[in-house]
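User: Hi! I'm working on a homework problem where we have to compare a predicted structure to a textbook description. Could you give me the structure for the chain below?
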Amino acid sequence: MSSGYTGLAAGSLKRQTYYNFRGVDFTDDVVNETRSPDSLNMWKNYKSLGKKIETRPDIELQLQLENTIYGLFFYTINNVDHWIIHSGTSLYDYNPNTKSLTTLKANGMNPFNSTAFIYNNLFFMIDGINYLEYDGSTIKDVEGTIPLTSIGRKPAGGGTQYQDINLISDYRKNSFWSDGTSTEYHLDATGISNTGVQVWINDVLQDSSTYTIDTVNGVITFTTAPVAAIDEDNVVIQFAKPVSGYANKIKKCTIATMFDNRVFFSGNQDYPNAVFWCSYNDPRYISDMNYALEGTDIAKVKSMVAGNNALWVFKEPSQANTTVFYHVPLESYDERLGDTVKTYPSVHSSISTGCAATGINFNDDICFFSDRGMEGITGDITTEQVLAHRSSLVDRKMLNEENYKRMVLAEWEGYLLVIIDDIVYLANSRETVANADHNEYEWFYWKLAKKMRATNVHNNVLYLCSERENVYDDNGYIKYTDGLNFYWYDSENEIVYDTDYEETQISVETLTPIYISGIYTLTNNNENRDLESYWTTKSDDFDYPQMLKTTNKRGFKSDVSGLSVTIEVKTDNNGFETLGTYNNTKGYIVAKLKRKKWNKIQLKFGSNKPFGIYEIVLESYIGSYVKRS
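Assistant: Happy to help. Predicted structure tokens:
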């Protein structure tokens, strides 16, 4: 840290010590001694006590596919954690033990990031087109629970409305109290389907030849009147009443979040401000009454986050200035069901900043990403919520990422990884910095070798799923196929070569490019791995911006470790110059540094091999005043 000395006489020696590194600060070159204005692929690994900054692990390919991977999920089948992979328009089951890849759905998946959850040991997923269920052997559309919509009906009708219509089922049931003489039984709906009718009398399924169906009026006519009821409804009729667009209210959702033993759905482009939820412990039953409209405007719901005893709903910016809503369970007695039920009324908060990307519960901090960066909500549902910024240190770069609004998030090793294509911003939950009246996170900055589209963490392992890319050879030629043979295309000279690199007269327009994508883990900790990383110190004026300085000719010392570490120096507006490369370092090294009459100085430590920095100590003599032109 800076010594903070003032009033030194000319010629006095001043020492700057850089240690206890906290992260990056992209606001300026003149930053705190613990931060770097320019760093790449460095972090604090708290498994090694977090006393140094060091090169991050590298990615390792685990599985190669052909198309962009929009979702990777884990589902235990026979004590094996299978990978459920949404790639392109297909869905796969990969057994990592046997290395077998099974196609669950060859096509029909939405090429959009999907969401999945486990409920009662069954796998469910939603992608904006499909709502699917998988039990480890069979994949199918979710078959909705059939509600009992009317009870105690007389053959002529009436009775009591019981359960609500299920959005994802065309089917309903009515139960009747038979009088023993009536043959016509009027259902609680007209215009029913002519298929799917089933009838039970005293729990015995009846043959379809014993009744006829009037689909227009919704009437079932028995050839012989059912026996009279004794002490409860004894005739149950199941029928289908399709309602156009009902199932798509759920199938077109792209967001699913667990809260209060229910699944909440949103992200439907046709109902952009709507949130739907299932019944207690039943993701197959979504009542047509279980929904809320978040605000009066149709700004899209971008994210739902459970935390602080509420479900938080974040909408995109809108002119209505009501963008953050929350739902808290409200218990009431339902006379129809004769039981206590929960509702989830929508309440808007005092926050008007909109969500531009997505949100997360990061270590009990309810956060979302706005057009200004990462925001956190301070205060719970019983107090006025206040928005506190969390990313001032990296906003300058992060907000300029081309696909900022398409970020994916992962919580891993105490960090929140904000992944935007091949760039990763890491918010550190263990270290924060006070900024005015709130705390913000310390951050690191990485660049990956691939553009990533999806991520997941399983058993403390971070999985990263890439976008598809062309296949290149060592010459930079692109791989193509005609369905039978492979070719290489030199795009610069517009030449197609066969596999022996013999020039052909084939037009590239008649060929199809070969694509690949991959699932990677961030697990390569090989000490000899090739990965560029570096750390620069602040542009340091030694607390004397008005004075020229001269470095101590004895050099400066650094506590570093690594197979190969290159140290560079920069003074004022000059470029970086290499001081030397130090091999097999472990502990303090002394680098010779002779620079005179400079105002600001900056050091850079870097390597293509893993390295770490504990401390840097730099000494300089204070000279004369800077001359002003």
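For your comparison, note the following. The chain has a mean pLDDT of 94. The chain has five domains: 13-57+531-625, 60-136, 148-240, 297-390, 472-513. Good luck with the assignment!
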